[in-house]
Amino acid sequence: MTIPYVNIHTHRPADREIVLRTAGIHPWDADKEEVASILPQLDRVQAVGEIGLDRVRGAAWERQLLLFREQLRLAREHRLPVVLHCVKTFEAVMRELALCEPRAAIFHGFIGSPEQAREALARGYYLSFGERTFASPKTVEALRATPPTQLFLETDDSPVPIGTIYARAEEVRGETVRELQQATLKNYEHLFGKYNG
């Protein structure tokens, strides 16, 4: 049986991939949209995202924080997981999650340290790794240590195919691509229900 690739966050969907349906206001757009704009979509999506905080670019900090809090509240009210954008804001994101705990949280494009990974994993959150992972020895270490039950892989906006990301994760983790596909599919189904592709 062919197992599809779960590509938990991508800007370039491709055949034979499972991708999420999401709605959310990115911190880069926090000064351009209001939370009310995503309300009509919440009945048709699987997660609220990509949402979060960014110290490098985006709207003013207070505006990002306000929108992040509002979207966490919406996700909680609708019992939806969140897909997180977190750039140089790990501690602040973790604080906000603790104040308004979502049903589940996925740190997309995780490029943090092993210590940050351990903290997020201890809270039951998921980590998703992509192309940028392999440029950081600390993040490679975090990928290696992430339990298969809390792991996702992604392409984000990279043109690299998802199969290549899985192959590179295989080299780091010592699990076969098929085992990684099975693990990420199981995690997907745990959060979003049975896949009937």
Structure overview:
The structure is a single chain. The chain is of the alpha/beta class and 197 residues long. The protein has one domain: Metal-dependent hydrolases (TIM Barrel), CATH 3.20.20. Helix content is 37%, strand content 15%. α3 packs parallel to α4. The longest helix is centred in the middle third of the chain and has 17 residues. The mean pLDDT is 96.
Question: What structural keywords apply?
Answer:
197 residues, alpha/beta, TIM Barrel, 6-stranded parallel beta sheet, two-stranded parallel sheet, 6 helices, 8 strands, globular
CATH homologous group name:
Metal-dependent hydrolases
- Tally of domains: 1
Biggest sheet, spatial arrangement of strands: 3-4-5-6-7-8
Mean pLDDT, all residues = 96
Q: Largest sheet at a glance?
A: 6 strands, parallel
Form type: globular
Task: Give the ordered list of helices and strands.
Answer: EEEEHEHEHEHEHH
Number of strands: 8
What do we call the CATH topology?
A: TIM Barrel
Just name the CATH architecture: Alpha-Beta Barrel
- Low-pLDDT stretches are none
Q: Structural class of the secondary structure composition?
A: alpha/beta
Number of helices: 6
